[in-house]
Amino acid sequence: MTQDPLSSIVATDEQMLEGGWELIVGLEVHVELATKTKLFSGSPNRFGDEPNTNIDPVTLGLPGALPVLNKQAVELAMRIGIALNCDIQPCIFHRKNYFYPDMPKAYQISQYDIPLNIDGFLVLPSGTRIGVERAHLEEDTGKSTHVGGATGRIHGSDYSLIDFNRAGVPLVEIVSRPDIRTSEHAKEYVAELRAILEVIGASDAKMEEGSMRVDANVSVHKPGTLFGTRCEIKNVNSIRALGRAIDYEARRQIDVLDSGGTIRQETRHWDDAEGRTHTLRVKEDADDYRYFPEPDLVPLAPSAEWVQAVRDNLPMLPAARRTALSALTGYDTQSEAVIVVVERGQHDYVQAVVDAGGDAVRALIYVQQGFADAGPVPAVPAADLAKLTVLERDAKLSATQAKTVLAELVEHGGGDAAVIAAAKGFEAMDTSAVEAMVDEAIAADPGAWAKYMAGDEKASGAIVGRVMKASQGKADGKIVTAIMQSRRS
Amino acid sequence: MAVIPTTASGIAAAIASKQITAREVIDSYLAQISARETDIHAFNLVTADAARAHADAIDADIAAGRPIGPLAGVPVAIKDNLCTHGIETTCSSKILEGWKPPYDATVVSRLRDAGAIMVGKTNLDEFAMGSSTENSAFGPTRNPLDTSRVPGGSSGGSAAAVAAGFAPVSLGSDTGGSIRQPAAMCGVVGVKPTYGLVSRYGLCAYASSLDQVGPFATTVADAALITEAIAGHDAMDSTSIPQPAPALVASVSQGVAGMRIGRVTDLPAGAEPEVIARLNEAFAALEAAGATIVDVTLPSLSYALTAYYLIAPAEASSNLARYDGVRYGLRVNAVDTNSMYGATRAAGFGDEVKRRIMLGTYALSAGYYDAYYGKALKVRRLIAEDFERAYAQVDVILTPTSPVVAFPFGDKVDDPMAMYLCDIYTIPTNLAGHPAMSVPFGTGAHGMPVGIQVLAPALGEAPMFRVGGSLENAAGGVK
Predict the structure, then answer these.
(1) How far is A162 from chain B (nearest CA, A)?
(2) What are the chain A neighbours of B317 within 8 Å (beta carbons)?
(3) Which of A173-177, B260-264, B348-352, B369-373 shows the lowest per-residue confidence on average (mean pLDDT)?
(4) Which of A93, A170, A246, B103 could form a disulfide with A33 if both were Cys (CB 3.0 to 4.6 A apart)?
(5) B125, B314 in Cβ contact below 8 A?
(6) Do A292 and A397 share a structural domain?
(7) Is position A4 within any domain?
(8) CB-based contacts of A256: which residues, under 8 Å, 6+ apart?
């Protein structure tokens, strides 16, 4: 058996692809840092401004302009490194030389063989540990718009427009080890990484706006052999697209190999509408970037005190948040509700609802179900949601009624749940009234009751239905069931 | 009309004490430019109107009793690879012809803040690549002492401007000797400060790890004065040393008593006999003034030229990649972007620039990096170590500035290696990042001036100027 030196992670039987193929994925994730200014100049780092307004001699690569490293960018990059369990080391910058119209100096200042962050890892919510090879600082390019021509690419266009607002924006490129074995894990990795980046304030990490860009290196091989030739998939603009692109690419490579062909090392473009990848360029065309140490910058060696200060000020990471939310609610750390709420950064909000006297489980579920688009700080005051959870817990409202009130709260950005419930005619039913209704229903349908008493749970439906009808839907189904159970025992 | 002093310090003092006006000074220098510039071609651009307006503003300040800068009214010529806000900055290259920077180089704004008046932008070898100013796209500069000869380079325009009396002081840039060598050939003082002492912000880069801005002057004291004015930390240049400008003018007159002067026993050969004769006279003069002459060796020096011609072109190939026709300067239209790059750069760059871009691109290429660029960096370290050992024994080292005196036009233009050898004594300092200066010291063949080079360790400007001042005193007695 030969083990590829790049990764020792082996797919489980369930993770293997059809025909005995093992999928090997490594991800390169570029994130734009949420700094005030650019990596090497004082121009604002701001998305969406008028084109070519956030520029200066450094951004435009004018003759004589020199880069000066942005301290905040270094600090955010170190936060990323620490959050990903990397070693932070003294490092240098290199020039990566290539011509492109939106690359003002015709070289990109990046890090090459001695990056800031090395040798980290990220533990997926499902438990798998994915190695992080490096997370280095570099500058972004400008943005080209190619006008005319069919493809929107530079070839065949009539002319091109360049916006240099993005040029020089600080990026951190996070390179995973080829430790990912399923498209699900790839999606999970990106979702978790995004949650981490948001939590530590390093980036808004929006794939749709391009502040987080994911390239996937995909190959397949038979276990016990060296890894196959990989293809790099670009233009993946959502987590869902990432999963689809990897699955497509794996299938494509397997088809080529199964029919006796070979995989060319190449860069492929994911077309989300067509659901397939196309060749963008083959490796043989690749530029020689002529990397050499950037003479306009001095080595970067963050002091131990600085690194420690960044470490000390790092907020609680998503994994720790899941653990805390699990302890608060009793839900498993890997339950969807906990994962989703932490991913959205809403765990502090759930805690606030509980602190305001709310019921923890109901708070978690309400936030999961009702606050998908609300962001980390929902508009509904935590106390308002707390009140609703209490009304439901104390059976003042049925689950169905509570859901209706929740929708009202979300729509209006808050409100008194009791007032809303009253306005809807959801008057509270006291338990004795419900008990009377249950007894009436049992009397009305003795056959169903007998079956229920004999252990046929399904027979309860008829009794519950009668109670609901009698109460005009105001009785809480859970309460009704509880009363029936107490009658049976 | 009052007599115009010939030194920057004299001019500044006379203006400040109202003996003469800034306008009288500037008119006098502009008259000298009018008289000889056609023969010399020191300038790519003379900014006469702006200079007069600046002078009038200074005179108005003085009349109104407002404070003026220490260099108020001193005319200064600026090498045309230093950015000047709104004023054409060409690097003597067609590719930048017509480009007006939206900002000033730090050295330019510091001189203006001190009250100095720019008279024009001086000619240079295209992008500071050359040793004779023959590589300018706008025609060569002529040596004011013999117009059939080159002024040296690459800062030939700045050297000639001072030698011809077009300005008492000027700024140049020195990557491998581009201030010191033309200073020697034109018979003026030229200083390359310690790397990082003077900001490079706004200096169009040739080789970033070697480039340094420095002054030309007719006296060592003026050179010290201008060095003081432009030196000191600049937050816009990451390689700028985080220290204020040192006081240097006082050093010039301190003498060399007790100083240890190094004589390099394994100096690369090739210097003209008259140049060697002047060097020996310089040692004798310093010894007579109370210094001790100590023999030192610099065994790695013979590899300096080779290392330089890998490192400098490698950095240049990257620095000059931005001249792509996309955003500014020349654009030659073509069917697609890549062809446009090629056509623009083919038309915009001269032969020497193309030669160095190709050399540097090759040196950095995959598979060649270790053998060429990587090895050159090792040589650079060895040279620095050689100097370190030498400076354990001596305060400064004396060598010729140039192995040859100013040569006739066309003499070396078709033989790049012969041209490169002009910088054999100046290049090692750039590789080490150390300061060095050239002081005129008598004449050599054809009656052309010889320059003696004073080398000092990093931030050793003060001892360097002490020796420079003593050499200047002694030079009066040399033929």
Answers:
(1) 10
(2) 97, 290
(3) B369-373
(4) A170
(5) no
(6) no
(7) no
(8) A262, A263
Distance from CA of B301 to the nearest CA of A (A): 23
CATH number at residue A459: 1.10.10
Q: Looking at the structure, do residues A390 and A283 belong to the same domain, yes or no?
A: no
Q: Does A422 touch chain B (CB under 8 A)?
A: no
Residues A281 and A329 in one domain: no
Amino acid present at A36: K
Fold of B8-252: Amidase signature (AS) enzymes (3.90.1300)
Residues A437 and A401 in one domain: no
Cβ contact B238–A154 (<8 Å): no
Separation in Å, CA of A60 to nearest CA in chain B: 8
Residue B362 corresponds to which tokens in the numbers above? 């090759």
**What angle in degrees, to the nearest 10, is found between the helix axes of A347-355 and A382-393?**
60
A8 found inside a domain: no
Distance, CA of B282 to chain centre: 22
Residues 6+ apart with CB under 8 A from A223: A10, A11, A16, A20, A22
Which ranges of B190-296 does DSSP label H, i.e. alpha helix? 220-230, 273-288
Cβ separation of B239 and A63 shorter than 8 Å? no
Same domain, A401 and A464: no
Residues A20 and A138 in one domain: yes
Report how far apart, in Å, the C-alpha atoms of A368 and of each of A240, A385, B418 are.
20, 13, 78
Whether residue A391 contacts residue A402, with contact meaning beta carbons closer than 8 Å, is answered with yes
The total number of structural domains in chain A stands at 3
What three-state secondary structure class fits B247? coil
pTM exceeding the 0.80 threshold for the entire prediction: yes
As averages over each run of 10 residues, the pLDDT of chain A (489 residues) reads 81 89 97 98 94 97 98 98 98 96 96 97 93 98 86 77 96 98 97 93 91 96 93 95 97 96 94 93 76 97 97 94 93 91 90 95 93 89 93 83 89 89 73 83 89 86 87 78 81
Give me the phi and psi of A232, to 5 degrees please.
Answer: -95, 125
Given B204, B238, B361, which is nearest A69 (Cβ)? B238
Tell me if B106 sits within 8 A of B235, measured CB to CB: no
Residue of chain A nearest B342, judged by CA positions: A99
* CA atoms of A74 and A149, how far apart (whole Å): 41
Q: Is the peptide bond before B154 cis (omega within 30 degrees of 0)?
A: yes
- Domain that includes residue A450, residue range: 431-488
User: Which of A287, A310, A333 finishes a domain?
Assistant: A310
Query: What does the pLDDT look like over B271-298, one tens digit per residue?
Result: 999 999 999 999 999 999 999 999 999 9
Phi/psi-derived region of residue A403, left when phi > 0, alpha when psi is between -120 and 50, beta in every other case? alpha
What is d(CA A436, CA A442) in angstroms, rounded to the nearest whole number? 10
Whether A64 and A102 share a structural domain: yes
